[in-house]
Amino acid sequence: MAISLLLHLGLITGVIVWAPLFSPPKPEAIEITLDTPPPAAPSKQSKNNQQIVRKSLVPDQMKAPDDETLARFLSEQRQRVKKEMQASDNGMTENRTNTSTLPKKSVTPPKQAQKAQEKTQVDKNDTDKDGYRTVDITKELAEMNALNQGQSTVGESLPTDVKIGSFTALNTDRYLFYSFYARIEELVRYRWETRVMTTINGMDPALAMNLSRRNWNTQVEFLLDKRGFLQKAMVMKESGVKGFDAAAVNAFKEARVFPNPPQEMIEEDGYIHLRYTFTVNYAPPTLVNSR
Fold first, then answer.
1. Looking at residue 141, what is its pLDDT?
2. Which is nearest to 43 in space by CA: 227, 269, 268?
3. Please, are residues 3 and 208 in contact by the beta-carbon 8 Å criterion?
4. Beta strand 89-90 with 230-237: parallel, antiparallel or unpaired?
5. pLDDT score recorded for residue 144
6. What distance in Å separates the CA atoms of residue 251 and residue 245, rounded to the nearest whole number?
7. Cα(175)–Cα(194) distance, rounded to whole angstroms?
């Protein structure tokens, strides 16, 4: 069985083969999201429950002037956007160049192409009224577009009022401990995905079908010592599926060490408290009778 996973981070896809009476189904999707509220240390408590999100670069034309309002989200940098939106595809949050939306090249007759090239060479030597030379950055833009091509992805479970768009753009306030949470996410992600995949693969197909089309939430609190060593994991709310709960806890237990924790995160009991909500959403393929 092949599945698709999202841990606030990644996407793996595949195809399931069913009986000959059915046409080939779409790949089933298992979405796993990781919501990370800020620690509850009194000195760092936000005015509201801001959600930590992975950083995502947005085009300059989408940015808005800074203001004094409190953003709903925390990230590496403070930014304001004209309109909040999230990418339609699941995966580690990253904005990419969608080549399908770029202008298609048109075939230019040789003579016209030569004239255009000559005009470009002349224009490069022109200066404006202030004495600045015109700079052609077409080549540089093409090189930039060659990087990180593909569909933009989002890995957070965002509020429903954040509309779907071609990329992710969110109003964020700077979070002092962002890099620590980002490191944790990278250490836990693959371990979590693997365990959820194993749980689904080991299920009876009928049981797996009954788990579909709803969210299965596991809330866990992890305690780290001042060195970043995991000392305790407490399941605060079970999802209803033991395998999903175990996947969340055991992913952290296997990672075990989260280096260089900010000492400011240590609470009065001497521990760093990390509170996570793991959400699994299983979407099986739709079966279509081919007869």
1. 47
2. 268
3. no
4. unpaired
5. 44
6. 10
7. 29
Which of 241, 199, 216 shows the shortest CA–CA distance to 33? 216
Q: What angle do CA 254, 255, 258 make, to 5 degrees?
A: 150
Distances (CA, A) of 265 to 41, 156, 228, 272: 7, 23, 11, 6
What is d(CA 56, CA 54) in angstroms, rounded to the nearest whole number? Answer: 6
Where b means 16+ CB within 10 Å and e means fewer, 214-223 reads eebbbbbebb
Identify the DSSP state of 274: E
Higher pLDDT, 212 or 119: 212
Name which residue leads in pLDDT, 194 or 113: 194
Computed over every residue of the chain, the mean pLDDT equals 75
Would you mind telling me the total number of residues written for the chain in this entry?
Answer: 291
Contact 277/256 with Cβ under 8 angstroms? no
- Please state whether beta strands 172-174 and 215-224 pair in parallel, antiparallel, or not at all (unpaired): unpaired
> What's the confidence (pLDDT) of residue 117?
59
Pairwise CA distance, residues 83 & 171, whole Å: 9
Residues forming beta bridges with residue 153, ordered by sequence position: 89, 94
Helices (H) and strands (E) in the chain, counts: 5, 11
Return the pLDDT at 266: 97
